Amino acid sequence: MGLHLNFEFTAPAETDAHTLEAFLQSVQKEAQRMGFDPSTVLNVPFDTPERRAFASRLGGSLWIEDERLKAGVPREEHATRYDAHTGGCRVVSIRGVVLVVTEKGGAESSFGFMQYPNVVADRAGETLAETALEGRWYFRDFVSTPDPRYRRIVEMFREAGYAREVHDDYAAVA
Questions:
Q1: FRET partner for 172 with CA separation of 20 to 30 A, picked from 64, 78, 134, 146?
Q2: Strand pairing of 137-143 and 163-168?
Q3: What is the mean pLDDT of the chain?
Q4: pTM above 0.90, yes or no
Q5: Residue 31: what are its φ and ψ, rounded to 5°?
Q6: Cis status, amide bond into 117, omega within 30 of 0
């Protein structure tokens, strides 16, 4: 068992990607001030196999389970890590607005927002599962460090009204 700072961010579907990008640029300035270097803000569609693979490495994943996934295979562009036994899969995001920060040791962490398809379909276009996000931006991830700089970044999301849930195991043992 490890200790984690878990965070879940969300923004309404009607929030423009450029609004989220501007917010993340302000977070980036604070991250740079705190010593994260390099850092970058990305605002990209995940519209090719290479970009979808990149999206899965950024984090912010969405895992869903549905009985219908036990009976059908989802489209490649909709899901990865498909498990027919449990009826679960990791949904592939279609767009991301993400801040990537790097600490001195080279470890990267991502914070931001992803958009996902409303449904996961099979190759014939039949719906196998709904994401229940209804177009909302969503990002869920964690970091495993007591470093207060990460908590400051997450706090900036909370202050802006984007933090849906935050759980800090380190606070419980401090």
A1: 64
A2: unpaired
A3: 94
A4: yes
A5: -60, -40
A6: no
**Residue carrying structure tokens 């909302």:** 136
Residue type, 48: T
Tokens of 81: 């890590």
**Three-state SS letters, the chain:** CCCCEEEEEEECCCCCHHHHHHHHHHHHHHHHHCCCCCEEEEEEECCCHHHHHHHHHHCCCEEEECHHHHCCCECCCCEEEEECCCCEEEECCCEEEEEEEECCCCCEEEEEEEECCCEEEECCCCEEEECCCCCCEEEEEEECCCCHHHHHHHHHHHHCCCEEEEEEHHHHHC
Residue with tokens 């379909």: 121
Q: What is the pLDDT of residue 174?
A: 64
